[in-house]
């Protein structure tokens, strides 16, 4: 959730909403994985042949790491030694979130080239790419470079 927050209460509510929506999304992705695996196993299908399957596996791994780091940094900061140490991970969590979003968009685009889509669903690659571009057009301008450590450089310290 990329909503500006100003007060500690807003930040906490934003974090809870962010975690809740992402957990719901991960739950739905896992449900999809279970359905696909059941189908593959019951029909003797092979695994990890398509770009979609490979990108999907990479996406699941990144999402798991992202969720674990995000959860522990915010809710269990002592795992990192201190709250400040945990907060130092926020910019990396944020940056990797943008990378994961891009990876997920690529995974969806790759799904259009699977046998099941080509023969049954017939979702067009161009439609997915247009949608992915629209998502990025909505997200990229909202990236706050300073929260990634890429903002205006600090003035030199005079001695």
- Give the rounded overall mean pLDDT: 92
Beta-sheet strand percentage?
A: under 5%
Distance between the termini: 42 Å
Unreliable stretches (pLDDT < 50, length at least 5) are none
The tally of strands reads 0
Helix content, binned percent: 55-70%
Number of DSSP helical runs: 6
Largest sheet: none
Instruction: Look at the helices and sheets and give the structural class.
Output: mainly alpha
Rg measurement, Å: 19 Å
Approximate shape: globular
Topology pattern, helix = H, strand = E: HHHHHH
Describe this structure in words.
InterPro entries: CYB561D1/2, Cyt_b561/ferric_Rdtase_TM. The chain has a domain at 47-148. Helices cover 69% and strands 0% of the residues. The chain has helices at residues 8-42, 51-75, 83-87, 90-111, 115-121, 125-139. The longest helix has 35 residues, at 8-42.
Topology of this structure?
Blueprint: H1 8-42, H2 51-75, H3 83-87, H4 90-111, H5 115-121, H6 125-139
Helix pairs in contact: 1-2, 2-4, 4-6
Domain Cytochrome b561: 1-149
Subcellular location: Membrane
GO cellular component, one term: membrane
């Amino acid at each position: 959730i990329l909503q500006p927050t100003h007060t500690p209460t807003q930040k906490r509510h934003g974090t809870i909403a962010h975690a809740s929506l992402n957990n719901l999304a991960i739950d739905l992705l896992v449900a999809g994985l279970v359905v696909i695996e059941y189908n593959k196993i019951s029909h003797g299908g092979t695994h990890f042949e398509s770009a979609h399957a490979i990108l999907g596996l990479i996406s699941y791994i990144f999402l798991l790491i992202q969720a674990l780091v995000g959860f522990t940094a915010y809710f269990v900061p002592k795992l990192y030694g201190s709250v400040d140490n945990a907060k130092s991970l926020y910019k990396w969590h944020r940056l990797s979130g943008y990378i994961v979003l891009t990876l997920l968009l690529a995974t969806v685009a790759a799904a259009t080239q699977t046998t099941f889509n080509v023969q049954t669903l017939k979702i067009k690659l161009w439609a997915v790419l247009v949608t992915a571009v629209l998502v990025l057009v909505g997200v990229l301008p909202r990236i706050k470079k300073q929260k990634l450590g890429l903002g205006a450089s600090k003035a030199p310290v005079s001695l």
